[in-house]
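Deliverable D4.2, example record:
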Amino acid sequence: MHAPVSPSFPILGLDIGPNSIGWALLSAAPDEEGRLVPQGILGLGVRIFEAGTEGDIEKGRDVSRAQARREARLQRRQAWRRARRLHSVFTLLQRADLLPQPAALNPDEPQARHQILAALDRELLARWGARTATLGNVGPVPHLVPYLLRARALDEPLEPYELGRALYHLAQRRGFQSNRKAARNDKEEGKVLQGIGDLEKAIQAAGSRTLGEYFATLDPREQRIRGRWTSRRMYEEEFEQIWAAQRPYYPDLLTDDLKRKLRRALFHQRPLKLQSHRIGGCELEPRRRRAPWALLGAQRLRLLQRVNDLRLKLRDGTERALTPQERDDLIAALETHNELTFAAIRKRLHLDEGVAFNLERGGETKLPGNRTNAALAKIFGKRWLQLTDGERNQVVEDVLTIQKDEILKRRAVREWGLSEEAASQLAELKLEPGYCRFSRKALARLLPHLEQGLPLQTAIQREYRVGRQISAAVASLPPVRKIIPQLNNPAVMRSLTELRRVVNALLRVYGKPAEIRIEL
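Output generated by the structure prediction step:
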């Protein structure tokens, strides 16, 4: 659609969505105050494209298109790691004469290992199958024999091959171990932990000492053994008990060196690979990486930024800033809450119901609080107030960087004086994910200015002596990757790439606009 209007001062309007870009080019003329006022339509249109992700973006249910490939790759790697683990354990047990070593079979071949274990299992079934009846089962049950060996190992000496088969069985199913730094599905992990908790109660109620001893008492016709959620800790504790019980019978065979190697082969879990190279650069300190949102300094800066931007609109239509007392009270409240709604803020500041906040006009309903401080204060209690700023920051660093729950629990008890219960809560704590715009250094330089009540942009200008940087004019928009090399969001990358195509096409037809207005 075109109109014969002079394009002396064209205004380009853009509406950018995840799978479409609407545009309208308006002719405009300056009014008495110099502001451009639209006069007519020069052109308009929409570009529809396939979104950079799959799923419902509007509801936050979109996923990367690479997810299916990534999940398949993960399954292949897990299968390979499991096979490597079983091979390592098998080889260690063979070298220690705890598993057979037929000369005709190569133990490096998976099929050969299967044949060796199958022959051993047939021999053990003939020897132990009838004894499954003594534990409440009727008739020989092949898959119960390894559990029976694990149970008997706690109280009586096993033959070397029997002990080796029991230890190898621990490697075949070694239980769930959560990685604190991994991305978690709260619903799925809650299901796993609930299943583990129910199993622990059942073990305790049955009076069993280990997981293997409990499973050995089950009648497979009534209760399935497979399909239950188990924890890595259960297997580690059983390994220790079996080793301690069998060591007196084979002191020359079950050496400390073998235990160390076997324990590592059984239970070692590869730590997550650090992804620091994928973190974007700081806007103000380009050589430094952005800081995690979970840091107390990042939480404080965001809190102060929103408070400093806050204005009150009174019943008579006038606006005013917060009084020093109101500001202090609001900051103190936000420091101990995840967030506060504007209704709750009015109540805390004893304001009339008719008083509105300027941020409400933009559709906001609440202000973010210091989520990290609120969560840790709840766990530490009064102890949190006794810590110095440096100690509090170190606690946050511990939660962010220590991968294993048990290590974090021990440090929380030993270093921070928490009880066992509080230490467990700290290990389960999930702080806010993601990264803010600024590095730790930039946060430290900006915070004093925001503490004084300055807006963020004013603080940046005063501290760094720069305002909003304006790039040199270009004839057309350059590739997105050239301007934002650290951008990893596929949906944003696709939208910006399509935006570049639209804008560059309009520049070729209409020339440069006098003004660009964007709606996201």
